[in-house]
Task: inverse folding
């Protein structure tokens, strides 16, 4: 997926960014273990878009915080989420995305649950002593739709995402919503079909959060975007929003020049949106690209200490013109070129931060988002035993990676 945001210092941005993370945050498997309960299980995790659950009884399985979660469309048109495990013998209830049905039935012994997770039936239930249906419903998981995207959270006390990111909804809500329609076969919940990059998940997020590397590593973006006019808005702890206008000067590359010529906004966007690319990061690992011709939503899911899956999907609005559809195809192609460049970059970073002598240097003001992210990670992991000087693992511990 694409990764190309750039921060630009403004009048209020003279302070030095917070320091980057030390190398061990990317290479120590003990830190990776602590991230599951301390970061992922306490944050909103992107799992799909509402268009993946159009009908009553629609259901899909997605990975979140080290668990597989089952998300369904309920009878009242709302959403429900449960851990994807039968309360009887632990069978996986749903595999991937399955056809809509009126209930959730375990494929092993036939225990049956309502869409809200209530256990309603078990074959030969008289043969099951002390069966308490009321106590054996599916394990509930919090679920919320934000900008039309579906998020889950294992923390029952988490602040609603709509409250955390209210300013983001105001800024980019006109791009998104439940009426978006997917483009192509890629889906956010499809972890098995996702691209895997050779880096820690935080390296990928760091890369998305800065454009200091754009002049060196992304020639297409330098020809298209007005690098000096990137803006970074670190509103609070929940999200960061970036935007950049397109250049007026025609690109020297014919493919990019054609995109500049045919760029046209989707229904619901303005002429000003036609000349601007926007990006957002919702902490910790949701990444959203808002283009005039499409929306790209993806997430960074660690599969090992030095491997990350990045499932995602492209979306557009119904009623787009042929010109907008052409612009979208051109833009997505440009994005994949950028993605391939970034895949190589993050692999190089992962290799380098494993060097025992490495310590991060000072960040540019264009990397302010990296400092924001590093501060959030440090805060969430501050009590982790492996990061305590007197704990079982201090800074002298080896920084190996999974292989």
Result:
């Amino acid at each position: 997926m694409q990764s190309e945001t750039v921060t630009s210092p403004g009048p209020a941005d003279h302070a030095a960014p917070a320091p980057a993370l030390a190398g061990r945050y990317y290479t120590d498997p003990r830190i990776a273990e602590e991230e599951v309960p301390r970061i992922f299980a306490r944050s909103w995790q992107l799992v799909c878009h509402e268009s993946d659950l159009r009908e009553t009884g629609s259901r899909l399985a997605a990975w979140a915080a080290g668990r597989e979660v089952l998300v369904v469309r309920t009878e009242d048109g709302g959403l429900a989420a449960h851990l994807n495990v039968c309360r009887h013998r632990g069978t996986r209830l749903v595999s991937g995305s399955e056809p809509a049905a009126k209930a959730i039935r375990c494929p092993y012994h036939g225990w049956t649950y309502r869409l809200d997770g209530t256990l309603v039936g078990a074959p030969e239930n008289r043969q099951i002593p002390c069966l308490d249906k009321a106590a054996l419903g599916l394990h509930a998981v919090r679920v919320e739709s934000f900008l039309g995207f579906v998020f889950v959270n294992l923390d029952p006390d988490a602040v609603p995402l709509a409250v955390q990111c209210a300013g983001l909804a105001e800024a980019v809500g006109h791009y998104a919503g439940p009426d978006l329609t997917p483009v192509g076969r890629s889906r956010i919940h499809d972890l098995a079909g996702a691209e895997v990059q050779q880096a820690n998940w935080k390296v990928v997020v760091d890369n998305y959060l800065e454009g200091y590397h754009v002049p060196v590593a992304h020639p297409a973006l330098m020809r298209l975007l007005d690098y000096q006019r990137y803006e970074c808005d670190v509103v609070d702890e929940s999200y960061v929003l970036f935007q950049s206008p397109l250049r007026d000067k025609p690109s020297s590359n014919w493919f990019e020049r054609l995109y500049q010529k045919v760029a046209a906004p989707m229904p619901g966007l303005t002429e000003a949106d036609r000349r601007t690319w926007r990006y957002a990061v919702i902490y910790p690992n949701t990444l959203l690209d808002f283009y005039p011709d499409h929306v790209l939503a993806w997430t960074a899911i660690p599969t090992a200490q030095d491997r990350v899956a990045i499932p995602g999907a492209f979306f557009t609005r119904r009623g787009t013109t042929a010109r907008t559809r052409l612009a979208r195809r051109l833009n997505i192609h440009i994005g994949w070129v950028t993605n391939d460049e970034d895949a190589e970059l993050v692999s190089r970073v992962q290799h380098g931060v494993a060097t025992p002598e490495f310590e991060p240097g000072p960040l540019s003001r264009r990397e302010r988002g990296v400092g924001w992210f590093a501060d959030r990670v440090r805060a969430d992991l501050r009590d982790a035993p492996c990061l305590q000087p007197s704990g079982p693992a201090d800074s002298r511990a080896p920084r190996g990676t999974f292989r």
